[in-house]
Sequence to fold (355 residues):
Amino acid sequence: MSGLLELSGLTVAFGRRGARPVLDGVELSVGEGEIVGVIGETGSGKTTLARTAVGLVPARSGRVVFDGREISGLRGRALRAFRRSGRLSYAFQDPLRALDPELTVRRAVAEPLAVAGDLDGAEIAARVDEALETVGLDAARLGDRLPGAISGGQRQRVLLARAIVTRPRLLIADEPVSALDASNRNRVLRLLDRLRTERGMAVVVISHDLSSLAGIADRVAVLYRGRVVEQGPVREVFGRPLHPYTALLIASAPSVRAEGGPGAAALRPSAEPPAWTAREGCVFAHRCPFVIGSCRTAPASGPVGERRTAACHRVPEWRGLVATAQGPPELVAAAGETHKKAGRPPALSRASEKG
Ligand SMILES: Nc1ncnc2c1ncn2[C@@H]1O[C@H](COP(=O)(O)OP(=O)(O)OP(=O)(O)O)[C@@H](O)[C@H]1O
Fold:
């Protein structure tokens, strides 16, 4: 059965020919009413994935199919008409930059409907009130304010109201909670869950915050350097990651780490700079403590069980190596170390990458 949104072999590159793709053969499917999380470190391509899916960035190759129609092939007027329809909606990452500072809340939310041109003024006003109410904002009190005169949490909800005012079948929300405090974060997450339950709306949530996704996502896709290295049901992926990169991400997020799962020290990547371009092999090979020859030369992909994929040649044997500390010497050495610094381990910062 095909999903509502199907990305297949999606490759995107910016700039000169031959530049390393920002997205490289991405496969992702989102079903009706499903919540899918996309996680990965800064620069892994999450926003580019969202922007390509909604037609803001052209794909170099591969396909984006929404509701049975190929979007990646649309150009000019046909693409504009599809985007105006608002059936596939995108809530941008940064509300302060995404909202016009000179448009009141009411006008900002009304804009997608005004652009679509299907409704008269009274109908638009009613839909705007409905959208603001859905996100828990008081239209009478806040409707005439400018973005600069409301709180960060309210701005985030205005952005969501604007994204759902067209009653989309799928919403892609780019880091919808990253700038919010705990209470606003929970409010926005509950809202996304409610939209799915009450309207059957599918949601793709891009987030750095694994614990947020653990609470609402059905499935999760892990992006690293433009490739989906693992995907599957969120409980399974967070509970028993099958790609060493996923394990590293999760080990660095104690709030979602399963009891007894490998710690970040045991997974500390090799500090060696990459000696090859990872186009053919695994994109994590240059950082992976479990690397073997084939990781550098052959793509590893494919299903691991019915609903999971993990692009790793050493699934599941690397997990056994961690458990018994019988891995390669650098792993055993790494396993004996502890990260003295609190917070994000150096392994996940872009500074540690040279390739
Ligand atoms: N329009 C563009 N032109 C050139 N390079 C771009 C463009 N957009 C994105 N990139 C590059 O593509 C890579 C992926 O960027 P992207 O914003 O998709 O990552 P991300 O995972 O969303 O990061 P973050 O979590 O920081 O938002 C980065 O190296 C970025 O500099």
